[in-house]
Each structure stands twice: as structure tokens, then as C-alpha cells.
Amino acid sequence: MKSHKPTFRHRIEYAAICFGIRLIQLLPPTKCRPLATMLGTIGFATMNRRRDIACSNVRLAAITNDETEVRRIARASMIHFIYVAIISLQAVGGKSPQHEIVEEIDPAAREVLADPDKGVILCSGHLGNWEAGLQAVAKQFPLLGIARRMNNPLVENLMAFRNHDNIEITPKHDQDAARLLRALAEGRNVGILFDQHAAGKRGVMVPFFGVPAATYTSPAMLHLTTKAPICFSTCVEIAPGQYRLRIDPPFVYTRTGDRKEDTTQILQALHSKLENAIREYPTQYLWAHRRWRNKDQSSESTP
Amino acid sequence: MQREKIMQTLCNIVEQSTVEPIDIENITEDTTIGELGFDSLSVLDLVYDMQQAFGLDFEVQELVTINAVGELIDFLEEEMKG
Questions:
Q1: How many angstroms away from the CA of B18 is the closest CA of chain A?
Q2: Under an 8 A CB cutoff, do B64 and A182 touch?
Q3: Computed from CA positions of residues A184, A189, A194, A198, in that sequence, does the dihedral angle turn out positive or negative?
Q4: Which DSSP helix (H) or strand (E) runs through A103?
Q5: ipTM of the complex
Q6: Which of B33, B60, B63, B72 to probe the A interface (max A CBs under 10 A)?
Q7: pTM
Q8: Domains located in chain B, CATH noted
Q9: For chain A, domain boundaries
Q10: How does pLDDT run across A208-266, given as a tens digit for each residue?
Q11: pLDDT(A110) > 50
């Protein structure tokens, strides 16, 4: 296991991040989007590797055949995520979010989310503002979010701002083996972003926009072992400063006994829902993530 | 099913499910679940494979207080008795 004692480099990084956050917190809300547009445009022009990955992913997903449109979507995606990062970092200091959340929660989903005897597995992707969605859900229902542990332990502590009475963030591979099972048994809902590349033998290949992508099995395995219902959820920006939190009806899958087949079926159903949501809001998806690492995306360049 | 047989089946499952390499010869009833190398996600593979191998459909919340392999065998024995 990696040591989590901060190194000199961690301290320098932490100081730089704290300084950056302080500056962002001084920013009036009206200036957040212009700043994100400026940084995103500069980033798109200068961060060649990220730009190439984003454009390559948009092409692989066949969102459009028009190369100008590919670049527009990839650039807008970069701007969008810088904007989401800025407004999320403003919340580090306790600043109230300036956005409005419009809820579209299926009644059956609301019922299971509120059930104090059994939790729900709430699955989402890197679309829109998942952080705002998580916080909006947690205002009404107890939630345990699973997130990757930061490499820098000082930054990890900083991210604890997201924890409050109704929400707790737990590392993806918690040494407390029973943590997720206990949370669901206690009626807490578990939030998972499922559209991440799974390294090594931890994943299964699932078609995402028709292209096989190594995917963590955790949402499916949680469902199969606990029988807790799965709900797909998104939180996308539908107008400036206005987000729509949508939670689909819960679904239950009956296991066949073939672990690989069972997990693949569940994950495929989730990816299919995510694909539809992305097609509706392509500029709000995190295209710069290397989702299809089995394809050599780093060698492709954007004209 | 005999206790030794349950232990043997469990060891085979652990060998398949755990991400960390583990010498199953060293597993005893006192070995803790944590020592088997499972974390909060990989333990789900263990639970699924146990449910399949023993043909059981137990509620997993009953597992959350179990710390050692011996306790897990006690639990499986009870479940198999129905």
C-alpha cells in the first residue's frame, strides 16, 4: 500500500492549490464563466495531448462526422469542465452555489432513495456537473460517494469539504472491506461514477458508443450481491446557472450465475443510458478522459 | 457440508477473487477478512462467488459484522442449515 505521508512536493502542490482556490473564491460569480472560457480556450490551444484525446474520443463515439464540430465539442467540453471545477472550488470555502437545481426524480426512485432500510446504488457519469448533483441528492437522502483517492494526502484532506451531515466521500478501494455493504444495509445510498477506465483485471469490456471500454464492475457487483436497486442519474446544465437533476426509475437485474455475463449486462444498460444523455449534451461530457485505453489514442493527433 | 469442506471451497474462492496474491495454505479460521487482501470493492467478488458456490441467497448485511474466516464459516454453516 502507498504511504500517505506528505512529501515536500505534496506540500508545494498543496500551497499552490490553496493559493489558486483563494483566488477563485475572491472571484465574483459573474466572472466564473468568462474565466473558464478564457482558460479553456488557452488550454485547448496549448494542451495538445488532452485536446487530441478529447477530439479522438468525440470521433470514436461518432457524435459527429464534421471535423469542425468535433473540435467545437472538444473545446466546449474543456471550457465546461474548467467552469465546473471553478464553481466547485468556490464551494471549498463554504460559498453557497449560485446555481439553481431543477429536479426530475422518478417517483419510484424517490421512494427507494428515501427507504431507511435499504440503500440505492446511484450511478452517474462524468457528464454535466455531477458534484452539484451529488450535493443536491444528499440534501434529501443520505449518500456515500465513492471517489478516487487523491495522490496528494494534503489535497485529499482538502477535498473533505464535500463531507457533511448527509454525505460522506469514501475512497474507491477502502481497506474497510464491509464499508459499502454496511452503508447500503444502513439505508444509505451509494453514489458511483461508472464511466472510468478500469485498470488491470478489475474490469470487464463493455461497449460504450459501440467501442469496447474496460469498465469497473463495482456498481454491478454491488447490485448483484446486495440486491439494492440501481438508479441512473444525471445533472446537466439546461440554461446558464440552471441544472437539471434527473434520476431514472430503479432497475433490478436477475443474476444468471455467470459473473462476467451478469456484470456486463448491467454495465451495458448503464452505458446505454449514459450514451443517450451524452448525445443530448455532448459539450458537457468529459471527453478528455482516456476512456478507451485499449485504443492507442495518444498516437492520434488532431489536424 | 463439513466445516473442512467449506474451508476448502472458501480458499478456492479467495484465490480466484482476491486482487492481492495470497498463499491459501496460510489461511486459518483466525485469518481476518482484511488479511485476505480484500477491499471495499474486491470483497463484492468474494460475496458473489460464495453465494454461487454454496447456492445461498443470504442478505449481505448479515456479513458486515464478520471479521475472521472462522466466523464466516459459522455463518455459512448456519445458512446451509436453512
A1: 10
A2: yes
A3: negative
A4: strand A100-105
A5: 0.86
A6: B60
A7: 0.88
A8: 3-81 (1.10.1200.10)
A9: 8-296
A10: 999 999 999 999 999 999 999 999 999 999 998 899 999 999 998 998 989 899 999 99
A11: yes
